[in-house]
Amino acid sequence: MEFSSVRDTESEPRVKVLPRDEAREHLLTIADILAKALDTTVKIPGTSWYIGLDPLLGLIPGIGDVIANLIGTVILGLATRLRLPRIVLARMSLNLLINGTVGAVPFVGDIFSIWFRSHARNAALLREAAMKPDRETRTDWFYVGGIISGTVVLLLLMIAFMVWVVFKLWGMLSL
After folding, report:
1. Exposure string for 38-72, b = 16+ CB within 10 A, e = fewer
2. Pair 54, 39: CB distance under 8 Å
3. Of 1, 18, 61, 115, which has the fewest CB atoms closer than 10 Å, so is most exposed?
């Protein structure tokens, strides 16, 4: 009886893969271009601030922030394609979540998007993690834990504020 360790290569899909460094640099460049378009395209005259498509799309009621965050998820997709650690993907997802949550508040959310620049943060995280051989650290886990805790606290405060506003309005209308 003879056993063969030869695999059937005919059934495996053939994919042309770019050399690793060239492909990685190409994906990082795409992330940088998207981040610049979404966060820092145009300089606000007389200031050192830049705005991009994210806060401008946020001015469209209801759907603008959704569109901006959907475009921003392309950077997250590039991170998964580069097989970054899950902790980095979690940090990037939280940046998008924070931007989308606060961005949903009219006007204030747009100003927050100009300041927070979630897409530029994600592009920087992507570049940093893609270049490190040891990509996961304890600091990353503490950062994500802090962001999650802070997000939950902010969400609860926002809910409490909205309930307070509703009760105040209800009290004014019932008089």
Report:
1. bbbeeeeeeeeeebbbbbbbbeeeeebbeebbebb
2. yes
3. 1
pLDDT at 123: 94
Residue 127 counted as domain residue: yes
* Predicted local confidence at residue 21, as pLDDT: 78
| pLDDT value of position 15 | 44
| pLDDT for the residue numbered 14 | 52
Give me the number of domains the chain comprises.
1
Strand partners, 43: 50
pLDDT (0 to 100) of residue 102: 86
pTM exceeds 0.70: no
Residues 6+ apart with CB under 8 A from 65: 57, 58, 99, 100, 103, 104, 109
Give a yes or no: residue 48 inside a domain: yes
Is residue 155 situated within a structural domain?
no
- Residue 152 within a domain: no
> 61 is in which domain, residue-wise?
20-136
Residues (pLDDT < 50) of the chain are 1, 3-8, 15-19
